[in-house]
Description:
The chain is α/β, with parallel strands linked by helices. The protein folds into two domains: 9-144, HAD superfamily/HAD-like (Rossmann fold, 3-Layer(aba) Sandwich); 158-303, Rossmann fold (3-Layer(aba) Sandwich). The protein has helices at residues 15-18, 22-31, 33-42, 54-61, 86-95, 128-136, 172-180, 182-191, 203-213, 236-246, 262-268, 278-284, and strands spanning 9-13, 19-20, 49-50, 73-79, 102-105, 122-125, 140-144, 158-162, 223-229, 252-255, 272-275, 290-292. The strands form two sheets. Strands 5-4-1-6-7-12-11-8-9-10 form a ten-stranded mixed β-sheet. Strands 2-3 form a two-stranded antiparallel ribbon. Helix 12 links the parallel strand 11 and strand 12. Helix 2 packs antiparallel against helix 3. The longest helix has 11 residues, at 203-213. The termini are far apart.
Amino acid sequence: MGYDLDNKLVIAISSRALFNLEEENEIFEKLGLNEYYDYQIKNEEKLLQKGTAFRLVNNLLKINDDFPSNKQVEVIIMSRNNAATSLRITKSIQMYKLDIQRSAWSGGNDISKYLKAFKVDLFLSANDFDVKAANDIGIAAARILPFDNDDELSDDQVKIAFDGDAVLFSDESEYIYKTEGLEAFLKHETSNALNNLPDGPFAKLLRVISNIQSKYNNEHTPIRTALVTARNSPAHERVIRTLNAWNVRIDESFFLGGMDKFEVVKAFGADIFFDDQDTHLETTHKSTPSAKVPYKSTSKINSL
Length: 304
């Protein structure tokens, strides 16, 4: 029987999300593919610097120490690099002592078509096309934003912060807000307070995380989650009822009513923050690893 990826938290991550490859990407964009390949091969032994998602991956992999015979977290490198240039990336993984054993190298082709074969729950990449393609096929995916991840911050807990509408929940209510305004949004949410919000792109991921949390006592959970949403009273009621109906745990919830999110996200100490709106991410990504969740290509919001 082959190695089973079911019942694990499976994260697929591109090399540019795990490591800082902005200099190398600039070579690719300015000088072309061959120059990029040559540079990577010539610098094979040079350690890559940590990228935006490095801290998240490093802390998540520590969970496996508690389950030596049945790993709960699997991290897979899925990259547009080819096998020849992969050596620098895999050698840096080894030097950082990250337990990442599986990888896929598409040689420049679309990587998203392989995500379901690897049972991926979360895909992180710096490539906007790949992220949107993954989201369209129902994989929780986000585009990593630049972040200077040179600190040595490490914690016994992985801290993940989520926006609500268009991330954990569908973008249905957000569309009403954008097209009809705050009053119509509040009226809609109040009249639907007893109706669960539809799943958003990260709903399944939250359930997988909750399954890992359930294996621990609350005070010893290795993952701590936070909801950081622009909603406030009375629109918060529908959110709370929905999460209860999903039987998932959100450890901390912040209903900000339009306040800036970056100070709350920073105070939470998030290893990563997921949001769909540039207006929030422009401030959070300066102090917290952040990633943008795209709308599906079929979303009505795209037409606005």
